[in-house]
Amino acid sequence: MATLSTNRVPGETLGHGPGAPPDPRSPVLSLRDVRISDQADGREIVHGVSFTLTPGKVVGIVGESGSGKTITCRAALGILPAHFEVTGGSIEIHGTDIAELSPARWTALHGLTISAVFQDPASYLNPSIPVGAQVAEVVRVKKRLGRGAARRRAVELLRAVHLREADLVYGQYPHELSGGMLQRVLIAAAIAADPRILIADEATTALDVTVQAEILDLLADLRERTGMALVVVSHDLAVVAQLCDEVLVMRQGEVVEHGPTGRVLHAPRHEYTQLLIAEHERYGLEKFLDPKLDPKEEA
Ligand SMILES: Nc1ncnc2c1ncn2[C@@H]1O[C@H](COP(=O)(O)OP(=O)(O)OP(=O)(O)O)[C@@H](O)[C@H]1O
Ligand SMILES: [Mg+2]
């Protein structure tokens, strides 16, 4: 049965293998000076991104449109668009350089370690299959459960993302659900195989403020309960302030600033970060900032 459409990412994951609980200090994802080029014209699009993600940690990526945030995420997921290539540096998942992964190995590993949620949930769901069956299919394939057990687990997952009347939602088609509900379904599919890393790329951008806040709480809760690590891409500094331990600021394929969220947002060093914050202050960023994070307050 075809479920999630072919451009899907949610639920696709890289495996970490069964067994030992994650070591809180050992990196689950690390990027070292990653460079990405468009092989069609030889243009380098991303000029060196580095960060390390350990269990339970949240790294944010902010920056102007076209600065390479999504391409960087896609590189880590092994799903770069055609003719894009990692041309420098390295990406490691659980200590394995992903350049060494064969397509078969990717497929075998998908389902357990890395997963993603993007904007525009409707485009990742098959319009002609009830949403619950699509989540159940991820569970069945990735967790190797039988149909009945996969169905029960899918309902649990729909409940876990705070969809009311999960049994009812299970049988509904994508067009019957609101954008916020669809985004929750996508998150349910993305966490169905208990990934260690979730990449949320503008996952709440299209949603209204209340729904956005609920989904951010949900992600924070998952991180807390399961030690899942997160990469959060957002143009919204308030989202970053609320969720992230550290933040990378990108402009034109370059990381212009990288540091603990409190330091970057309270004492930005790069003029582009200062500009971003000045723009955001007009929208009430202050209320999301925790004074405890302000290094100036420590003195
Ligand atoms: N599928 C693609 N085919 C060709 N070029 C692409 C593709 N996706 C991205 N690019 C190019 O790569 C560069 C980086 O794009 P990317 O999508 O990573 O930006 P972004 O920071 O995620 O922007 P936004 O905030 O608008 O989502 C841009 O110059 C963009 O035009
Ligand atoms: Mg993007």
From TrEMBL:
The keyword ATP-binding applies. Residues 29-277 form the ABC transporter domain. The keyword Metal-binding does not apply. CDD domains: ABC_NikE_OppD_transporters. SMART domains: AAA. It holds the Pfam family ABC_tran. It is found in: Cell membrane. One of its GO terms (molecular function) is ATP binding. Belongs to the ABC transporter superfamily. This is ABC transporter ATP-binding protein. It comes from Streptomyces endocoffeicus.
